[in-house]
Design goal:
By secondary structure, the protein is an all-alpha fold. The chain has 2 domains: about 280 residues, Rhopdopsin 7-helix transmembrane proteins; about 30 residues. The protein has 13 helices and no strands. This is G-protein coupled receptors family 1 profile domain-containing protein. GO terms for molecular function: neuropeptide receptor activity.
Length: about 325
């Protein structure tokens, strides 16, 4: 059974209740649309205003923001689809475009996060070897290669049906049940090239960076803090957005194939619901990515620290004033 369609025929005994999907995903998409739109617009503005301070990495961050805005612009259509009980009203072509934008954003994000990690690695571990070699022109070329590789990986998805036979109402995130067996090998290969390989590169880069920063006490403390912030953000992105989605997408495809063979297990329901949650989490990467803009943005962090300090002082003054009024009222009651 597709993640978006009810069971039929001999699958009716193993049908899945889609109410959770129709409630959970629209709420997540609305939140991500609002937060992602505002955060990425503000983030891109910050990148453009601090272009020279950010260096060559700014080109990757700019591309990351463009990918996010492209995807969040499709979310209102997906909100409509799931809120209406999986009824797609915008045609199969636009359905494929919408799913294409999600994949473009997801794997573009992974690609540009990998590029940022490699640049950080080269700048910290091999600063003399790359001095004068890494420039804006190289970053533009690398960005174009990332887009090209991502498009090559996700383009085959456009050739799989996104609607059920004899129906134009559906807009599946993967493909129809009849093509699930053919889609699974593609999904596994896509997971390896688009996710596992970049994840391995990022782990190696940050592992070596951590070793160098720990072993070399002469490295600037601010640089260490910036690298730590980046490691935390990337770890959150991969742990929350990317790892669960890729694992559960392939598991869900396997359960759909098993159902077509007449198999039915209670675990299939658990996998389906977990997959829907992972889809929502994968979507949130468009709202979390703007944190990358803040890494190394000392001006913003300083303003945030000042606002926090002023807020604490204001609360302290309010609490003191309230305590004084209570004490004064108690004294007045005592006198009376």
């Amino acid at each position: 059974m597709s993640a978006d369609s009810p069971g039929s025929g001999n699958q009716s005994a193993c049908a899945i209740d889609l109410d959770f999907t129709h409630t959970f995903l629209p709420v997540v998409f609305v939140v991500v649309f609002v937060v992602g739109l505002v955060a990425n617009a503000c983030g891109l503005r910050s990148v453009c205003s601090r272009w020279r301070k950010l260096g060559d990495v700014s080109i990757f961050i700019l591309n990351l923001g463009i990918a996010d805005l492209l995807y969040v612009s499709t979310l209102p259509f997906l909100v409509s689809y799931y809120a209406l009980g999986s009824r797609w009203m915008f045609g199969e072509t636009f359905c494929k475009v919408t799913r294409f934008c999600f994949n473009l954003n997801l794997y573009g994000s992974i690609g540009f996060l990998t590029c940022i990690s490699i640049y950080r690695y080269l700048g910290i571990v091999h600063p003399m070897k790359v001095k004068g070699k890494i420039n804006s022109r190289l970053s533009v070329v690398v960005s174009a290669l990332v887009w090209a590789l991502v498009i090559v990986q996700i383009s085959p998805d456009m050739f799989f049906n996104k609607t059920a036979p004899n129906s134009s109402d559906s807009c599946y995130d993967t493909t129809a049940d009849g093509l699930a067996a053919a889609y699974l090998p593609y999904s596994l290969g896509w997971t390896f090239t688009g996710f596992v390989v970049p994840l391995a590169i990022i782990i190696l880069c940050y592992g070596h960076i951590a070793y160098v920063l720990t072993a070399n006490g002469s490295i600037n403390v601010l640089l260490k803090q910036r690298c730590l912030k980046l490691v935390v953000v990337v770890t959150v992105l991969f742990s929350i957005c990317f790892i669960p989605f890729h694992v559960l997408r392939n598991l869900n495809l396997q359960t759909r194939i098993a159902k077509l063979r007449g198999e039915c297990h209670h675990s299939f329901d658990d996998i389906y619901f977990a997959y829907q949650i992972s889809r929502g989490l994968a979507c949130t990467n468009s709202a979390i990515n703007p944190l990358i803009y803040l890494v190394g943005n000392d001006d913003f962090l300083l303003r945030l620290h000042r606002l926090g300090r002023e807020a604490r002082r204001t609360l302290a003054r309010c609490a003191g004033a309230a305590a004084y009024r209570r004490a004064h009222e108690m004294d007045s009651m005592g006198v009376a």
